[in-house]
Amino acid sequence: xxxxxxxxxxxxxxxxxxxxxxxxxxxxxxxxxxxxxxxxxxxxxxxxxxxxxxxxxxxxxxxxxxxxxxxxxxxxxxxxxxxxxxxxxxxxxxxxxxxxxxxxxxxxxxxxxxxxxxxxxxxxxxxxxxxxxxxxxxxxxxxxxxxxxxxxxxxxxxxxxxxxxxxxxxx
Length: 171
Prior knowledge:
Layout: E1 11-12, H1 15-25, E2 48-51, H2 57-72, E3 76-82, H3 88-97, E4 100-104, E5 111-113, E6 119-122, E7 130-135, H4 148-157, E8 165-169
Parallel strand pairs: 2-3
Antiparallel strand pairs: 1-5, 3-7, 4-7, 4-8, 5-6
Helix pairs in contact: 2-3
């Protein structure tokens, strides 16, 4: 078993990921920012939302379910979450509702924050693989190639579409 160090649930998304999301989707609302003064689960979200939820099981499940609920209201929800493809959450909620899942090659270096908001240690890499899950009304669904060969050539020609991500769209 791997040594799992869990100090807290506050991890900031690296700037390069946020920049790529803004480039593709434009400006967005973050319903669960670090040290927020509001409860992102109890408020109405905006038209385009980026969510890097706490990775504890109950919080992650709650934010995934809220993203699905908001998508059904016509909103786009882009989530950065750990890859857990053997879970009930993945099979019953994510896989059946996501318009797109992008698996990130390699592990993300997150910046940690303590409960008082102080920047903590930057780890060499996260403890889990990560994926971008997009819940989008059908009119916003991105068309992507269906095989790896065309994915690689497409990324070389269009680096703005997450060059580090392998993409699969689900109809």
